Amino acid sequence: QVQLVESGGGLVQPGGSLRLSCAASGSILSFNAVGWYRQAPGKQRELVARFTKSGITNYADSVKGRFTISRDNAKNTVYLQMNSLKPADTAVYYCTAVSVLSLDYWGKGTLVTVSS
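Given the sequence above, the corresponding structure tokens read:
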């Protein structure tokens, strides 16, 4: 059973930065895709950023130029560096992975609140 554990959320002022981490229980290289989604209050869950095994990196238009996804394969950890944060970025951020069998795995989420 794959486990994904997020950390790094918290309260930050507009314009500030946070780095989220997602530690996986297995090798992240074994997944077809790994990345981050978010869900704001009253809204649907949406893709933020992800890597695919084919080498493609996707970002939501709303975060391009501000957020950067990265990974440390040796630590089985995926990161999301978030800069120039806006109140609209307030959400629960979820780490996700898709296995080679197309099974979806989700972490429990970490709350990011952007407010002055």
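The radius of gyration is 13 Å. Try to locate this feature in the token string yourself.
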